């Protein structure tokens, strides 16, 4: 039980069933986000996999001064979902979730649900479209609307990888959904 509450990443981040087996409380949090915002669990997992590899305290690397002295970070992005300070403040203000933490899985998936729903409302992108949703997530709503991603072929490749991971997670969840929803099969007693 202590293992599921720890902040270490799951051992097998490529398999949704294993993720939720190891971190049993994460399925409930992801399901709550789905019920609240309508954003599928497989998309939530694919975003977190891309952004932090499920590390609660992930940060962008530091720049180097003179090639070896650690310097500033490129961005204030932090946590499971790699959310910048200003975007996190916007989320907390709009949702009233003032005590939310970026390094808390429950709050991270709630943020992803809220952001994807906001993207759907503002830009008309389906909540079930991981490719376009990820482009809007990475570039922001204004950047996506201006097509900034079109000048970044590396980013469209990343978004395709997110889409591929989301499809794999979706298939995996379908295979273990009954265990996840019943809560059986994961506990030794």
In short:
This protein has 189 residues and is mostly helical.
List the helices and strands and how they pair.
Elements: H1 2-5, H2 16-22, H3 24-37, H4 41-52, E1 62-65, E2 69-73, H5 85-95, H6 105-123, H7 130-146, H8 153-182
Antiparallel strand pairs: 1-2
Summarize the biggest pleated sheet: 2 strands, antiparallel
CA-atom Rg in angstroms: 17 Å
Q: Regions with pLDDT < 50 over 5+ consecutive residues?
A: 1-5, 185-189
Strand count: 2
Q: Roughly what percent helix?
A: 55-70%
From the helix content, strand content and strand pairing, which structural class follows?
Answer: mainly alpha
Terminal-residue CA separation: 12 Å
Beta-strand share of residues: under 5%
Q: Can you count the helices?
A: 8
The string of secondary-structure elements, in order, is: HHHHEEHHHH
Mean pLDDT: 89
The strand line-up of the biggest sheet is 1-2
Globular, elongated, flat, extended or rod-shaped: what is the shape? globular
Give me some keywords for this one.
189 residues; mainly alpha; two-stranded antiparallel ribbon; 2 strands; globular; disordered C terminus
How would you portray this structure in words?
There is one protein chain. The chain is mostly helical and 189 residues long. Helix content is 60%, strand content 5%. The chain contains eight helices and two strands. The protein has a two-stranded antiparallel sheet. Helix 2 (16-22) crosses helix 8 (153-182), helix 4 (41-52) crosses helix 6 and helix 4 crosses helix 8 (153-182). The longest helix has 30 residues, at 153-182. It is globular and about 45 Å long. Mean pLDDT is 89; it is low at 1-5 and 185-189.
